[in-house]
Every structure is written in structure tokens, then in C-alpha cells.
Amino acid sequence: MASGSALQGDTLCGLVAVPLPTDSRQSGWLMLFRAEQHETRLWAGKPEDTPMVRQGRLIMTPRRSFAQWQEEVKGLSLAYSDGLTGAWNRYRMELAIDAEINAADRYGSPCTLLLFDVDHFKLFNDTHGHEAGDRVLIELCKTIQASLRISDTLGRWGGEEFLVLASHSDQQSGLQLAERLRQGVEAMDLG
């Protein structure tokens, strides 16, 4: 393993290994390591299920208390944002969508989910190169991010596909947001 001062003392728990065709007699590998990511999650309601006997019957009643408790998550190598654009990645967006749907079900709070992609992006990449395509995606995200509220979330779903998750946004607000984003993207200067 190659040594690096950035990894000294860190626990490694993520690895991507790619074989390199260095020459026919000897194989080589490109190995990318990721340090362990520690995360503290705050929860309400203890998850322990304490059995109780009431009127001669055994009753299981978890989460009787809504006191806050925390959980230390270790041993994971998590990435929540897209390395190119800085937008949330698909994994993080799936978590956010689940949370928003749960809030909508529980509290009746509307939300909007917009899915969009860049038209003819493969042709653009083939014509101008992937570096130019990367610059377009970066500028696209900057433009969209500038039009969002602090409570809205931009995520990269894959390739040139993106999502915007808008909390507390009904159908009419969602349509207005989509049009505002469309106008902002249309006005982008990529020259």
C-alpha cells in the first residue's frame, strides 16, 4: 500500500482497484483508498424494546420515550456528493426523497420532485469532448443552485440526469420552480 500523510492514522474502509496494462510481463494496479467516515446521527425515541406485563399479558412497547439519543456510525466509507458537480449523489438523494415522502405522509406537507436531463448531451460530448461536457454540467449545477431555496436540494441522478427536491412545495409551486429553472438554464452563457 502506498503511504500518504493524508491517510496516516485514519482507518481505511473503502477501496477501488483498477488493473493497469503496464506491460505484458507484469501487471499493475491503480488503488484508491477512502478513509472511514464517522457520522453522528441524532434520533428521537429509544429503539430498545422493553417487555412489560400488563393485566397478566406480555406487552412490547418500543419507543415510549421521545428523548433524543445519538448513534455513532463507524466503519463506513460514505460519499454524499457528486465529485464533479458538488450536487448530492444518487444515494443521498434517495435518502432525502424517502425522508420527504415520510414527512408528506405524516404531516400532509407537500413536496415537489423534478427530474430533468440535458438534451443531446452525448452528441455534445462526442463533438466537443468530455472535458467540455464536464464544464457544462458544472455550470448547469451552479445555475440551478442559484435559483433554489436553501431548503431545496439538487442531486445528480446519473450522467446528465438531475433531480431537484423541493420541500413544502405544492403542484403550483413546483411548476413555477420548474419554469424558473428552465429559464435560468436557457439563459446560461456557455461561450
What features would you describe in this structure?
With 191 residues, this protein is an alpha+beta fold. Helix content is 31%, strand content 32%. The strands form four sheets. Strands 7-9-8 form a three-stranded antiparallel beta sheet, sandwiched between helices. Strands 1-2 form a two-stranded antiparallel ribbon. A two-stranded antiparallel sheet has the order 3-6. A hairpin with a 2-residue loop joins strand 8 (153-158) and strand 9 (161-167). Helix 3 (130-147) crosses helix 4. 12% of the residues are buried.
Write a brief structural summary:
This protein is of the alpha+beta class and 191 residues long. The protein contains 4 helices and 9 strands.
Tell how many strands the DSSP assignment holds: 9
SSE pattern:
EEEEEEHEHHEEH
Q: What is the residue-averaged pLDDT? A: 82
| Radius of gyration, taken over Cα atoms and rounded to an integer in Å | 23 Å
Q: Give the low-pLDDT segments.
A: 1-6
What would the principal axes of the Cα set say about the shape? flat
Helix content: 25-40%
Structural class: alpha+beta
Distance between the termini: 44 Å
